[in-house]
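[INFO] parsing input record for NAD(P)H-quinone oxidoreductase chain 4
[DEBUG] input buffer:
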Amino acid sequence: MTSFPWLTTLIIFPILASLVVPILPDKDGRTVRWYALIVGLIDFALMVYTFANNYDIHSDRLQLVESYTWIPQIDLRWSVGVDGLSMPLVILTGFITTLAILAAWPVTFKPKLFYFLILLMYGGQIAVFAVQDMLLFFLVWELELIPVYLFLAIWGGKKRLYASTKFILYTAGGSLFILVAALAMGFYGDTISFDMRTLAAKDYTLNFQLFMYAGLLIAYGVKLPIIPLHTWLPDAHGEATAPVHMLLAGILLKMGGYALIRMNAGMLPDAHATFAPVLIVLGVVNIVYAALTSFAQRNLKRKIAYSSISHMGFVLIGIASFTDLGLSGALLQMVSHGLIGASLFFLVGSTYDRTHTLMLDEMGGVGQKMKKIFAMFVACSMASLALPGMSGFVAELMVFVGFATSDAYNLQFKVIMTLIAAVGVILTPIYLLSMLREIFYGAENKELVEHEELVDAEPREVFIIACLLVPIIGVGFYPKLLTQIYDSTTTSMTAHLRDSVPTIAHKQSNPVAIGKFQQAPKIVKTVNS
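[DEBUG] output buffer:
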């Protein structure tokens, strides 16, 4: 069965299944939601089976590779494969999307269209992490834009048209840089190819790499998001429904981090050496600025949205650390935040369904009537503020230690950046704990407590949060559950970054960051097949 097209099946199955949704005999949405849930479970189960039986976690090579000719004139192929960078994110996609389908159970407005879009998006998101052709990557990257736009425009809040328009302008505008970079890199040199391994092996000039890196950094910086390209995210989260929140926080933001590692660092290593100090600074700005902004928010959704932006700053620092530990921490942070962000936003949606308000000033005193929701909110907030024993703590610690022990940066730069980033780490528990106090045990809003139907969590909601907390706590106590999947790949990637750029001068002083890179003889790049 090793020759079976596993990855193609995982991608195509939910897309084909979505085409059946419009013809299902269903009036009230009951049939279609069960159908979507079954499709999600089947694809996730098939995903687990595929990787359990056909993926070697000890290999750093691309596995489950499939390649089929599409447009031979320009060597455009349907090419897919996974390694340690992408396999955990494919699993995360299946897990979060299946839970998002269950979270969408109360959807009654245009349910067929909703579940059609969520299944279509399911296949597109898996494809983003699996495709190995850069032009094909651009196409599947674009595939998820329209479902999210429609989710916001049709099922969003009062400002849904503004939020959806802003989302499509930012993300579609950023995607143009991917297309330009794909074409420029594909036609560079004597051969025309969009295969990522072929592109990584081309001998680009440094100036060309810098231009390509800058363009891709903008494209993926929008999705991550990197400040100041972040403003679409709080607006999108402010108007989205709970299942869309889960997809945005759990998967979409990780697409940007993954692409930065796969393309910017993996395919343009010389430019990565030049931009690495910039990534460190941007990561620190993300952590501190977004934490301060979150601290000031009175809207619950926007507060958690800025918290997500803050946590993604650790991904940038890990990518630019030039250490195995830092890069491993960045990957762990992406998976960890995918779980934590999805859980927090789901609870925000559940709370809104009961209180019908998102303003912290209008909440208060609901803890006595919503004890289960309060308990779940506390557990997920503890994970977000990096409580020891939770996955967030391990990820952030690995990034900090990886950066602090990196020999690519001088001591002064590392101390300054670490101290500034620590401010954001200190602010996180302050704004999260104060949020919990205001919602559940703040000054009681008598009108809210007496007139709203503040029922506690139902079994479906408890089940969703339990499913998310199990891996959060499991990875927190035993990180090797996850890190062993990609250790060989991150080790190989770090070695590639350090060996493919001019050697690091340990003893030369440099007023900023990345030591001073001495010019070394050109090294022929090798790419794992």
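[INFO] Confidence is low (pLDDT under 50) at residues 503-529.
[INFO] shutting down worker
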